[in-house]
Amino acid sequence: KLLNKQALSYEYSNSIPLYIWLRTAGRILKHAKWYLADNVLDEAYILYCRLMDLIIDKLYRHPDLKKLKAEYSITPLSKNVKVYDEFLKLRAALPNLMSEAEKIKQVLTENYSRYLESEKRKKQLIELQELKFQQLKAQEQERIEGFKKKQENKSDQNNVDEANLSKKLRSLSNNSLSSFETLNNSNIPSYPNLPVFDQSYTQQQNQSLPSSPPPIYQQLPQLPKKPSTKTGTSSKKETVHKTVNFTEGGSPLRTIFISPNLIDSFLKLAKRNTSKKLETCGILCGKLNRNAFFITYLIIPDQDSTANTCNTKNEEKLFDVIDNLDLFILGWIHTHPTQSCFLSSVDLHTQNSYQIMLNEAIAIVCSPSEKFDKKLGVFRLTDPPGIPKITNCNLTGFHPHPENDLYVECNRLNHDNPASGHVVIKGELPFEVKDLR
């Protein structure tokens, strides 16, 4: 029930074009398959259920669908019809999606049952240990009480014995004293003195004894060294990265690792545009490994740039490259040649489309201008209130968003403060660059 609730907990708006939702659906399906391959069954189940809900409940009622369906019957080779084809493919995949979700649900149910049984046995064991402890405690208390009672009885008996003994001693003392006074000292026998012991004899005897030779110790053979228990085939268990960051609503955010050299490489590629005061953008892609994301590719798409905007072109080529490399889209990076590091209203809507596909997706803004002290910003939309507000915003282009809590910085400040952000900029991480311009 909890996983189903999480699956249905996402922001949806008909104001976002159908082709973007279909692209999002395709990425959700790919992510679900990745999670299933990595045996992250709970995440896979959430995404399969979310995808089915998106297709059946949301996209069926999208206003663009009716228009595309009508156009499909008239001009089946038009560009917009390709969007409708994508919808038909997703709809045809529904039986397989349901089958996969059902299989995962069965495994999760079995795992949960085993977990409950294990917890039950642990509880029973703890209760049994507590019972034994209480029994031992009661036995010890009983033994102590018995010992105290014996000591008290013994003490009472000793008092009686001492009183009797004292009485007898007083009686004996009186009798002895009267008898002793009648004795004559001359009648007391005397004993001869002991002879003086001649110590010189002992010294001579000791000097005449020969000294004993030093003892000879037989050297025992050394024990062989204990054979090593390590084998060449043994390997250290891989570390799984623990999730330590969460959204404002409590959803987990896995850690994203990125190399600072990747950011430097992007700035070098953008230098020509930057000198002309034109924006440059790139797509951040990577892999999921041990419950963390690693940005391994910087892809520069074909693009149209102005001083304040940057729009990708030939998106089919871009997504073909991403799909062929089997990558997660983990965010985007762009320059502000004449401005500081922040997310404009256009940037907010762009970032929203990334976070709809992946909760952890980030936006990196670079400000190369010497006029601004802050050169780098790593951001994500808050959830809530950022994602629901932007998802339900129907405005386009630059428009005001007076709220100041729509996005936050998510770059982890240091190792000792992991809660400061889920993005770790770390050196020596491998990456590749693909410039599609």
UniProtKB/TrEMBL annotation:
Highest taxon of the lineage: Eukaryota
Gene Ontology cellular component annotations, sorted alphabetically: endosome; membrane
InterPro entries from the UniProt entry: JAMM/MPN+_dom, MPN, STAMBP/STALP-like_MPN, USP8_dimer
Cross-referenced Pfam families: JAB, USP8_dimer
Annotated Low complexity bias: 217-234
Purpose of the protein: Inhibitor of the DOA4 deubiquitinase involved in the regulation of protein degradation by the proteasome and maintenance of a normal level of free ubiquitin.
Protein name: Regulator of free ubiquitin chains 1
Organism: [Candida] arabinofermentans NRRL YB-2248
